[in-house]
Each structure stands twice: as structure tokens, then as C-alpha cells.
Amino acid sequence: MSSVLYDTPGPRAKRRNVLLSVVFTLLLLLTLWWVWQKMDDKNQLEWNLWEPFTTGEAWTTYLLPGLGNTLKAAAISMVIALPLGAVFGIARMSDHAWVRGVAGTVVEFFRSIPVLLLMLFANEFYVRSSMGISSEERPLYAVVTGLVLYNASVLAEVVRAGILSLPKGQTEAAYAVGLRKGQTMTSILLPQAVTVMLPAIVSQLVVIVKDTALGGVMLGFTELLNSRSTLAANYANVIPSFIVVGIVFIVVNFLLTSFASWLEQRLRRSKKSTGAVIGDDPAEINPAAVRGTYGTGENAGGGF
Amino acid sequence: MFDFLEGYDVLGAFWMTVKLTVLSAVGSLIWGTLLAGMRVSPVPLMRGFGTAYVNIVRNIPLTVIIVFTSLGLADIFGVTMGAADNFDVQGFRLAVLGFTAYTAAFVCEAIRSGINTVPLGQAEAARAIGLNFSQTLRLIVLPQAFRAVINPLANVLIALTKNTTVAAAIGVAEAAALMKTMIENEAQTLAIGAVFAFGFVVLTLPTGLFLGWLAKRLAVKR
């Protein structure tokens, strides 16, 4: 794509590109050198600050349990949010105006509120309720509640987009063989929509994993970012601990992102599916564009 | 009924949220456009830098970035953003820096997808009349790309508005921080939650509607 914007470089363009590369490299090196110098000034480069990460104690005591909690909260949230999202997504397409209205309002409401507010509110709610949640367990409950409310409404839109992306012939054929509306949804539309939605669902996991960090700072949930502060308090290595935790997050999320795009390409290529796939950023789905994805595949409707 | 609001500066907290949002939006639009320019540029090194930046920053939680600006940049590196003596101003500026760095990655991706919507012929024609890369990008491609990506950018802006609550993690007195204090001190949890939820709906809903309308109006009809 980028080659459209410029010609194959001639001698002058080549010289200019080399010059630009050199200038850019110098700027980058200058910045890196400055950062390195600063870190040296503040004694953040000393080996004893980095050593804990090579020996395993830092990992087994702090980082891995933290990462475990991060992934646990993300997994629980996803498992609860998915069916909830499916219900609301389907309810938004109901034939009954009041079901549509209620589901639409709920989805739009929770989508427009920051996750942090939902978590804080859930936390306070559990403090005051008589549900018998112990104070050690409360942060996890609050984080999961906040994530579920927000992500169920995001997933509801994904589900809706997934179902709308299926060729109309699927529904018509189902009615023709005598299935009822509920049967059509559960045995024809939903199973197909799930494959269409898979990449979007996997990339939503990245958002959930990132959002668990909120609970670490604001609610004292012992996830990865929170374990980092305990670790840094122990070894007095603020900058190294941030760098290592950042890398762990990047690796986990990069794996999820790559898996999502691999899945998307696979589904696009596969002959059996309709070829319709929802884009990897669910935030970009808007109701107006949802219909645009209808029948994207070349062999749309020929899926049986 | 709303007497629990007395003694709390709710409007002030939301004003802080708005200030954070607007400043970060302007910053990330500029930085994001530069990044998008790098990602499509003929210099491989710049392309590499743009790609690396976007992939790294997108995968780090915003919370980590914001906490790092406070504990890492300010405390260890001594980056005070020109407000060493005023802790509140320093926190605010650090938060804007963090939001800008994070949101720019998403702005960059949105603009890049907009560049993809501009037909090949446009760039070819621009090159045929002798425009070079930066002229093609500045005069022909980006103006059309921007009109195509108002909707995705609106989504980024709305996400940014909601994300500014993370600034509460480093003690910036915005809406989420005030809500935390209020629900801990007052009895009417539900009413307080409703007030703040309403505040965010008021902030995000008109933005989405206005920009959606703008996107339809400005879309390049092809």
C-alpha cells in the first residue's frame, strides 16, 4: 500500500532516503543515550536491581502470581460476559419493541460509562451488601463485575454485528424448512455468527487483560501491576520492574492479537464460512456500518 | 434529594475530565498523524519505528503507562513537566503526556485505515503531476483520509474521554477520583453512581452524535 504514495526511488530519492535514515537514527540514538544516561544517573542500571529477574524468586513470589490473577480475572470476566452479551445482542434484534428498547438502553448505558466507575461502584456495593464476600475476595469480585458489565455490552454489539453479517438466505432457508424463530437463532444463526465473531472476541480479551490493571491501582486487586509495586518496594528497582512488567503485558497481549489476526485470515480464506469476519477492533463497529459487512464473502450463501 | 452533592465540587471534577480529554485529544491527534506519516513513509527505518511504537504502546495497559509517568518519569527521572513545586499541576501534565502517548497509537491506526480508503488513482495522479511524497500526503491523501476517518476518530475520542478516569490512579482530581471519595463517605451510593454515570453519558453521547453527523456530511462521496 505504501508504495502507492511514492515511486521506486531514483538516485536522488535514494540519497534523500539515506540522509533521512541517518538523521532519524541519530535522533533515536540521542534519545536512547539520554534515557541511558538518566538511568545511569539514578542508579537504575546497577546489576543488583536487575538480578532478581534472572534468578526466579521475583517471578515465583511476585510476578507469576500477579499474572495469574490478571489472567484469572480476565478469563472469568470473559466467560460471564460472553453469554450475557449474546443475550443482549439478540434481544436488541427482537421483534418486540420493548425488548429491543430495554436491551438497547442497557447496552448503550454501560458502553458509555468508564470501566473504572463501574469497578469502584461494584466495590462499594459489595462493601455495603450483606452477600458475605470477604475483604480479600472483594477486589476480584469488583474487578470482574466492572469488566463483565462493560464488556458484555461491547460483546452484545459484536454479537449483533456477527448475526447481521450472515447472508439473509440463511434465515429464509431456515424458515422454509419450517424452523421457528428461536430454533433459527439457536441452530442456524448463532453457531455461524460465533465463527464470524471469533477474531473480535479474542481481541476483546486484550482489552479485558489491560483493564484488570485498573483494579490493581484503584482497588488493591493483586494483579500484575499491583505485584510490581510490592516487588519494587522489596528490591527498590522501580524502573526495571516497570520495564519487566511492561514486557510481560506486551508479550501476553501480542500473542492474543497475533492469534486473533491469524484466526481472522484463516476464516477469511476458509471455503466453508461465509467469509464475513468482524474487524479486529470492536470499538469501530457502528450500527450504520454493520449492514455494510453483509454478504462480503464471494461465496456468500453457498455455505451448506 | 441531591443534598449529598453539597460540599463536593462535582462540576469542577468533570471540568478536570474535560480539560484532560481536550488537551490529550489535541496532543494525540498531532502525534498520531506524525506516526501515521512515518508508517507510510518511504524511509524503512521510520516505518519500522512507527510499527514498533504502535504495537508496543497498544499492548501495554494505559494504567501501567499512567502510573509509570508518576512513579517512573517524575519520581525517578525527575521529569516534572515544568511544575516541580506544584504537585497537582505536575500530575495533570504527566497524565496528559501519558494519555497522548497511548491514544496516539490508536489515532495512528485510524488514520492509516483512512489512507487505505483513498483510491490508488489519486496518489498516482498526484505523482504524475510531479508531487513528491510529502506533498502527495499533505495535499492529496491526508485531507481525504481525515474525512473518511471521522467516525473511527470519534470512537477513539470517546474511549479517551472514558480513559481519562485512569488519571485518578496518580491523584488527579477528576470525576472518578471524586466519585471514589464520595461513595466512601456518603450513604447514597446508588444516587452518587447515577450522577457520575449521567455525567459521562452527557460527555460522550453528544460527542458521538455530533461527530457521526459530521462524518456523514464530510464523507467523500465516491
Give unreliable regions of chain A as ranges: 280-304
- Percent range for helical residues of chain A? over 70%
Largest sheet composition of chain B: none
**Overall pLDDT of chain A:** 84
Question: Which helices and strands, and how do they pair?
Answer:
The complex is a heterodimer of chains A (304) and B (222).
Chain A: H1 11-41, H2 47-50, H3 52-55, H4 57-91, H5 97-111, H6 115-128, H7 138-164, H8 168-176, H9 181-218, H10 224-235, H11 238-269, H12 287-290
Chain B: H1 10-39, H2 44-59, H3 62-76, H4 87-117, H5 120-128, H6 133-148, H7 150-163, H8 175-185, H9 189-218
Keyword list:
heterodimer, A: 304 residues, mainly alpha, 12 helices, B: 222 residues, 9 helices, 0% strand
Kindly summarize this structure in a few lines.
Chain A has 304 residues and is mostly helical. Helix content of chain A is 74%, strand content 0%.
